[in-house]
Amino acid sequence: MDDGLYDEIPRLHAAGIPFVLAIVTAVRGSTPQDAGARMLVTDSGLHAGTVGGGRIEAAALVHAREMLDRRTATSTVEWNLQRDIGMTCGGVMHLYFELHSRSAWTIVIFGAGHVVQALLPVLAPLPCRIQCYDPRTEWLARLPTATNVQLIELPAPADAVADLPADAFVLLITQGHATDLPILQRCLETRNFPYLGVIGSQSKRATLERDLRAAGLPPEKQSAFECPIGLRIGSNHPHEIALSIAAGLLAARDRLRTSADDQSPA
């Protein structure tokens, strides 16, 4: 059965939309669908597929939405269609429900230059959602396209900071210090992202801290960012820098997830 449903799963993951996958695992007697029928359910209702339509599907939608509300991981049901659902056919259907609730890893990149041109092809195949901001049409046009990549032309990229997801990993890889600084300052003044990094050297970091201090940011904010970013590997070739940055992002993501798991109640 090739109904395109499984093509929707990575799209929902990339968009960070929780959903329930419902599968008919077995049937007996007269039923509106065979074993193997499936559907995807989001908070908005039926997203793709079907488990039979009518009353059986309505009941399955209710069950899936309850799982979304309660964050129930998995569930199985056995429904006699006449007794439990009120249908005239007298068959029995077994369904398995599975919740997919992890939000997509959101990466926001300011800049579309040579390093970003090399970085996006590395990040795009990962289970993440990428937003890339730059005021230059021609540079954005050179970037690869993917279902989980959003390319946004914005004359003043710092204006995007207020609307970024709270859990975004934010990278500043613009044309240089003059264009990185206003975005960095806006991030530090108004937001608290789990990861905030600026491409550059230790001397660039010192310059950024000096300018943030001159702008009146409190001491704890003046250094609350990563610079340099990436692992200390490779050369200054854009593709090697890109690999270094991607590896550093993965390391930071995994540290945060491990920390969150350690703090979760048993």
Structure overview:
- The protein has 266 residues and is an alpha/beta fold.
- The chain is built from nine helices and ten strands.
- It has helices at residues 5-15, 54-70, 81-85, 114-123, 137-140, 177-190, 202-214, 219-222, 238-263, and strands at 19-28, 38-42, 45-50, 74-80, 92-100, 105-110, 128-134, 149-153, 169-172, 195-198.
- A five-stranded antiparallel β-sheet has the order 3-2-1-5-4.
- A hairpin with a 2-residue loop joins β2 (38-42) and β3 (45-50).
- The radius of gyration is 24 Å and the shape is elongated.
Radius of gyration: 24 Å
Helix count equals 9
Strand order of the largest sheet: 3-2-1-5-4
Low-confidence stretches: none
- Extended strand count: 10
Distance between the termini: 40 Å
Categorize the overall geometry.
elongated
Largest sheet composition: 5 strands, antiparallel
> Which structural class do you get from the secondary structure elements?
alpha/beta
In helices, the fraction of residues equals 25-40%
What string, H for helix and E for strand, traces the elements in order?
HEEEHEHEEHEHEEHEHHH
Question: What amount of the residues lies in strands?
Answer: 15-25%
Average pLDDT for all residues: 92
Oligomer: single chain
Short description:
This protein has 266 residues and is an alpha/beta fold.
